[in-house]
Design goal:
The strands form 5 sheets. The chain has an 8-stranded antiparallel beta sheet. By secondary structure, it is α/β, with parallel strands linked by helices. Helix content is 37%, strand content 25%. It has 3 domains: 241 residues, Glutamine Phosphoribosylpyrophosphate, subunit 1, domain 1 (4-Layer Sandwich); 199 residues, Rossmann fold (3-Layer(aba) Sandwich), CATH 3.40.50; 147 residues, 3-Layer(aba) Sandwich (Rossmann fold). It binds fructose -6-phosphate. The site of fructose -6-phosphate (F6R) has 15 residues, from helix 10 and helix 17.
Length: 611
């Protein structure tokens, strides 16, 4: 949450930073701002989108070869010009941007007010900035030293970038708990919450670790720990292309990402799944395969959509591997005192790899002796690095705030892990194993087929867009798909939607059913199909509108429903990867039909790096 960009080098900083902020806008869009160093320090900021900032600065002096920029997701203080970053220190000499939360800001603020400081905003950021300035003035030290001293007294999470009118060409950066990437160019450096702002300039990056501080100048990158010891930067090569972060002709990133799924699932399977040889190769899992096989239980830890992937995986692992699985919301798990026993394996699932709750949850479990495996999309992210092993999902950058292609890639990885363990453990017979491997390889083409029904789904979105509520039902492997469909609709169209296991409907939600309630039922052919059909009849008996996902050729179920979306036949273990796709499209087209900005739904931001 919140996007940060920095640049120092021979170029004009403004265009580099503005372009970078646009790429990071998915992280928050409550306000945007920029600070430029050009002899003096200039700060421009505005409530709203980056485009509002661009309007604001027309005609202003935008020169400067060093600068920092911010796009905000509000935590402390409402979205406003005053609360927008960068903040200026009391003397006006320092400017700072921040992603995260300073937990002890109230006490620091009280102390500073007692010393005569005045504040122009309600943010924790301005407090930290003035705290740094106070140390700098009192200790007669440079900015780097002041930041180091201040951060030792701060609790919370942060990435901060600071510039000082008295230290030209220098950006001081530090992180704890929020992401920071530094791009290394020729005589120039780039900073970002992720690598997207620097992609066209460099492929060489350094992922800064927690409790590290960077002194960044055009020709120099010095990395230190908070004890002032130098650290050798570990330079990595990016393998993301610019096209991956552009809309490539689609109206929205969300639509592009939904349509990328045949390719992203394929990419995820590629090099891992050998259908002829009957093998699954995942090097980051292989070395822990023995522990997984012998595990007393597997605990899946995640948030949001990734948590839904964990729920699907629970069904799959229990069915195939006969291992007890629990699925935990990271935010709950981290504050409980969970019982971690020897032999427990934790699987952390995260698209961004930066979700604060998931990160802390796995660190707690690690401290208690659990083995942590990460199923993560963003390479080099904090969760990936905090895990002992794991597997990347290789879905490419996901920019639409609502997660889509990350979910199906997570399911592909989790299914491969389960199949591998089941095979090694002998809990799956060879015929079924080989058949599932072959069918897994066919998932991309089945998803492709589903995408061809987009016009039908767009019509359905138009038909039902004015409904006040939606109910989503599914059973077994498809119950989490119902949850995910409801979450997507809520996020993108702001229509209240609830997902339920179909059989639970009778225990309460059926009271909601009347002629105004659309009920989306995942009713594909599987073990529970005839039971789900009974649930459809119960809804119809109460005049509810049923939109069912049915398997090709299932005319009997189609005859019971108001509307149907047809999906190809698939083994029930693999079905969620296919059945979720029409529900993503339904949410997308409903949001579009209602005129909303589906890539930037209100109040949300991608990558939840605060609690
Ligand atoms: C929903 C969505 C969120 C994320 C959740 C976890 O569309 O995007 O619910 O799934 O914030 O994020 P990651 O997977 O990055 O840990």
């Amino acid at each position: 949450m919140c996007g940060i960009v920095g640049y120092t080098g021979p170029k004009e900083a403004y265009p580099v930073i503005i372009k970078g902020l646009k790429r990071l806008e998915y992280r928050g869009y409550d306000s945007a701002g920029i600070a430029l160093l050009d002899g003096s320090l200039k700060v421009y900021k505005k409530k709203g989108r980056v485009s509002d900032l661009e309007d604001e600065v027309v005609g202003k002096d935008l020169h400067g070869h060093t600068g920092i920029g911010h796009t905000r997701w509000a935590t402390h203080g409402e979205p406003s010009d005053a609360n927008a970053h960068p903040h200026r220190s009391s003397t006006g000499k320092l400017a700072m941007i921040h992603n995260g939360i300073i937990e002890n800001y109230a006490q620091l603020k009280k102390d500073l007010i007692n010393k005569g400081y005045q504040f122009k905003s309600d943010t924790d950021t301005e407090v930290l900035l003035n705290f740094i300035e106070e140390i700098k003035e009192n200790n007669h030290c440079g900015l780097e030293e002041a930041v180091r001293v201040a951060l030792k007294r701060v609790t919370g999470a942060y990435v901060i970038l600071l510039i000082d009118a008295e230290e030209p060409d220098t950006i001081i950066a530090a992180r704890k708990g929020s992401p920071l990437v530094i791009g290394i160019g020729k005589g120039e450096h780039f900073l970002g919450s992720d690598a997207s702002p620097m992609l066209e300039y460099t492929k060489e990056v350094v992922y800064v670790n927690d409790y590290e501080l960077a002194i960044v100048r055009p020709d120099e990158l010095i990395l230190k720990n908070l004890g002032n010891e130098k650290i050798t930067p570990y330079v990595q090569k990016l393998d993301i292309e610019l096209a991956a972060i552009e809309k490539s002709g689609y109206d929205h990133f969300m639509l592009k990402e939904i349509f990328e799924q045949p390719q992203t699932i394929f990419d995820c399977l590629r090099g891992r799944l050998d259908t002829l040889g009957g093998t699954i190769t995942m090097s980051g899992i292989q070395q822990y395969a023995d522990q997984i096989m012998k595990a007393n239980r597997i605990v899946m830890i995640a948030c949001g959509t990734s948590w839904h992937a964990g729920l699907v995986a629970e069904y799959i692992f229990e069915e195939l591997c006969r291992i007890n699985v629990e699925v935990e919301y990271a935010s709950e798990f981290r504050y409980r005192n969970p019982v971690i026993q020897p032999g427990d394996v934790i699987i952390a699932i995260s698209q961004s790899g930066e979700t604060a709750d998931t990160l802390v949850a796995i660190e707690n479990a690690k401290a208690k002796g659990a083995i942590i495996l990460g199923v993560v999309n963003v390479v080099g992210s904090s969760i990936a690095r905090a895990s002992h092993g794991g597997a990347y999902t290789h879905a490419g950058p996901e920019i639409g705030v609502a997660s889509t292609k990350a979910f199906t890639a997570q399911l592909a990885v989790l299914t491969m892990i389960a199949l591998k363990i089941a095979h090694d453990k002998g809990t799956i017979d060879q015929d079924r194993y080989m058949r599932l491997l072959a069918e897994l390889a066919e998932v991309p083409s089945k998803v492709e087929k589903v995408l061809k029904t987009k016009d039908k789904i767009r019509d359905l979105a138009e038909k039902y867009k004015d409904a006040r509520d939606f109910l989503y039902l599914g059973r077994g492997f498809n119950f989490p798909v119902a949850l995910e469909g409801a979450l997507k609709l809520k996020e993108i169209s702001y229509i209240h939607a609830e997902g339920y296991p179909a059989a639970e409907m009778k225990h309460g939600p059926i009271a909601l059913v009347d002629e105004n309630l659309p009920v989306v039922v995942v009713a594909t052919k599987d073990t529970y199909h005839h039971k789900v059909v009974s649930n459809i009849q119960e809804i119809k008996a109460r005049k509810g509108k049923v939109i069912a996902l049915i398997t090709e050729g299932d005319t009997a179920t189609a005859a019971l429903c108001d509307d149907v979306i047809i999906v190809p036949e698939a083994d029930e273990i693999l079905a969620p990867m296919i059945s979720v796709v029409p529900l993503q499209l339904l949410a997308y087209y409903t949001g579009v039909a209602k005129g909303y900005d589906v890539d930037k739904p209100r109040n949300l931001a991608k990558s939840v790096t605060v609690e």
